[in-house]
Amino acid sequence: MGVKIVDTCLRDGHQSLIATRLSTEDILKVATHLDKAGYHALEVWGGATFDACLRFLDEDPWERLRLIRKACPNTKLQMLFRGQNILGYRHYSDELVEKFVQKSLENGIDIIRVFDALNDIRNLKSAIDACIKYGGHCQIALSYTTSPVHTIQYYVELAKEVEKLGGQSLCIKDMAGVLLPDAAYELVSELKANCSLPIELHTHCTGGIAEMTILKAIEAGVDIVDTALSPFSGGTSQPCTEALCYVLRGTDKDPKLDLAECRKGTAILTEIKDKFLADGVLNPKALTVNPRILRYQVPGGMLSNLMSQLKGQGAMDKYEEVLREIPRVREDLGYPPLVTPLSQMVGTQAVMNILAGERYKMVPKEINDYLKGLYGQAPAPVNEDVRKKIIGDAVVITHRPADDIEPEFDAMKAKYGDICESDEDVLSCALFENVAVKFLENRRKKANKEADEVVEFNVYIGGN
Ligand code: CO
After folding, report:
1. Cross-strand bridge partners of residue 115
2. The model's pTM
3. pLDDT score recorded for residue 461
4. Which of 424, 414, 413, 420 is nearest to 437 (CA)?
5. Are strands 169-173 and 111-115 parallel, antiparallel or unpaired?
6. Could you write out the DSSP letters of every residue in 193-204?
7. pLDDT tens figures, 110-156
8. Number of Cβ atoms within 10 Å of the Cβ of 206
9. Cα of 460 from ligand 1 centre, angstroms
10. CA of 229 to the centre of ligand 1 (A)
11. Neighbouring C-beta atoms of residue 340, cutoff 10 Å
């Protein structure tokens, strides 16, 4: 059977290359062509797309989703969901997770890809249950990383548990783009042998190996791969959709996409991309192969964050030292995969360790919480000396963090009832409180202004 393709240009592609700045207007120009191309699904929604809509584009992310749904009646729409963190950075109540899943499905999502940064499956359970309850397809993504504990056997055991929990497909989420081709072959082969769920591969081109990795994964029988149409492929994004189609043409793996529709989409996206290139939002650096990520096992986005943190402190000369500190911090913390929010946390701690001249003298609150168990179970035992130094005798919880979180939806609704017109608005406030409130207040002002203008106009007409 042909390999299935999920196109990521409307989510990860523009998130990776242009800081998630595609507007809904731009997206709708290309959506109908994508809809006709024959994809397994289109990835269109996630934490950064939601946040960027409210924060930078003055757009309602829910409205965007509904418009894409309308423009794409033939293709499944997919989103990325951070388990108990939903689209945010902290743990939310189970009731909020359920409500968000329900509303995402109601507004047009078909497939929810759920992951937890630590692969702590207790943090996935509410999202899985809600997705099944409201009739969505629940895909579980395993955060891929390399460490002494992240062996093939570790991922196979995780996959078996995911299958038991009710996940309907499985994704290898290689957010850093460090999955080597042979490792991919072995991992996919073992997962296929030990688990009956369809397997999808998500990787990034950052290190220059993704096309090779994808091909080896396809040889090993992976069912679905994530690629992006050429204008938003390569660099820190996914491999190119059209190129993969040519590679597989005439084989039994041929995805059989309608390349004429792909070309129409590509033409439109190229114009849009050129605009971002011209105004500097697309930094050519994001398109450059960066094999250093393979050496340091650090996601590309994290490298650029570190660089700007150090530049801000006037400490760029410490860059290499910080890069060498990252694996040591990771080891102390029990080898968390470097994915949001852990990538930011580990990166910041490494910077603080080097700039302070003493390890763990300065510690961000998030690392404190992590060591108290508030993010869930670390993949491997943490360094107890480090824990003691940071949190002293504070209580370390071993139960599921969300067990301690009270329902919060109604409180949010009461707090912002005056600017919220729907449960979706309340959810926006619950997730990105400051930016959502600002957006909704603005929307209210604009609506009032329009209403005033109508009144003035009527008064004027009436006056004559
Ligand atoms: Co990604």
Report:
1. 141
2. 0.94
3. 52
4. 420
5. unpaired
6. HH--S-EEEE--
7. 999 999 999 999 999 999 999 999 999 999 999 999 999 999 999 99
8. 29
9. 55
10. 15
11. 20
